[in-house]
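Structure (tokenized):
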């Protein structure tokens, strides 16, 4: 797999992490994600029975939830618990991005995994409760679910040392969310390419207004519609009251895991890109030479 042009400025450990993340994005889905893909055809008849008004309602609810979290200032998210977790991991004071950038990537990974695990548990509980109500519960489930997803990605962003409020950052969060829903390998490959272009734009300091124009507003409605279709198909069995609670909990748990792992690897790539850029500017030459086969 070709490495990005900035990889020669990484040291051996960081280069191994870069390869691991790139390999992860090209890995076929596993576990419940693969099972859900296999269930697409058996659930097709059930999908056709879902009233169009219900489908549209789900898309509208997701659009509203996305718009709400995008318009929020981020003030409701307290950074202190995240920084405290990083302090405990590092064994020293971590007060902001400058200190985070000097942490070993392995420590950030451990904190990120614990963060994702906590959100998976919360989403499972929420999905189990809403699943008891069948189809009406699915509509009620959406705002809470996407609130958890967005907040989890925000926390991941902060713990890797990136801000969350500027429009450009919110566009990046949306892209991570979108990519986290993908189970098709080709869709994941294309999504990764788009994510890397966006990260290059962010690293180059592209103005937030330009990012918003090109990425955020252009596809928010389409993204909401696509996520609505994906989510509803994942959770069709939740409309059956007998098993709805189990499916609601399981699908929420898996979706938070998919998006959480995507966020960790996405911000890993961005963290490493920034570290390579800093070393390039500081040292003016690569730390190692790469062969064409590296």
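Design, position by position:
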């Amino acid at each position: 797999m070709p490495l990005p042009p900035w990889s020669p400025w990484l040291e051996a450990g960081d280069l191994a992490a870069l390869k691991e993340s790139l390999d992860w994005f090209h890995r076929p889905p596993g576990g419940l994600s693969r099972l859900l893909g296999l269930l697409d055809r058996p659930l097709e008849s059930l999908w056709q029975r879902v009233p169009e008004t219900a489908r549209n309602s789900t898309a509208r609810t997701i659009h509203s939830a996305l718009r709400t979290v995008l318009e929020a200032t981020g003030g409701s998210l307290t950074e202190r618990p995240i920084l405290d977790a990083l302090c405990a991991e590092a064994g020293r004071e971590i007060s902001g991005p400058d200190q985070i950038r000097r942490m070993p990537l392995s420590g950030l990974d451990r904190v990120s995994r614990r963060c994702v695990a906590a959100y998976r548990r919360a989403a499972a509980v929420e999905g189990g409760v809403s699943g008891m109500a069948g189809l009406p519960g699915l509509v009620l489930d959406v705002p809470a679910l996407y609130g958890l997803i967005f907040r989890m990605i925000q926390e991941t962003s902060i713990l890797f040392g990136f801000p969350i409020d500027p429009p450009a950052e919110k566009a990046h969060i949306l892209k991570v969310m979108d990519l986290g829903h993908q189970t098709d390998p080709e869709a994941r490959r294309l999504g990764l390419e788009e994510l890397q272009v966006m990260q290059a734009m962010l690293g180059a300091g592209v103005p937030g207004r330009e990012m918003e124009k090109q990425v955020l507003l252009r596809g928010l409605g389409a993204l909401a519609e696509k996520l609505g279709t994906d989510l509803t198909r994942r959770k069709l069995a939740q409309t059956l009251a007998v098993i709805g609670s189990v499916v609601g909990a399981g699908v929420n748990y898996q979706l938070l895991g998919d998006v959480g792992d995507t966020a960790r690897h996405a911000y890993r790539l961005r963290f490493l890109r920034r570290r390579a850029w800093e070393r390039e500017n500081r040292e003016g030459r690569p730390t190692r030479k790469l062969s064409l086969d590296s």
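Reviewer-requested clarification: The mean pLDDT is 78. The two ends are 9 Å apart (CA to CA).
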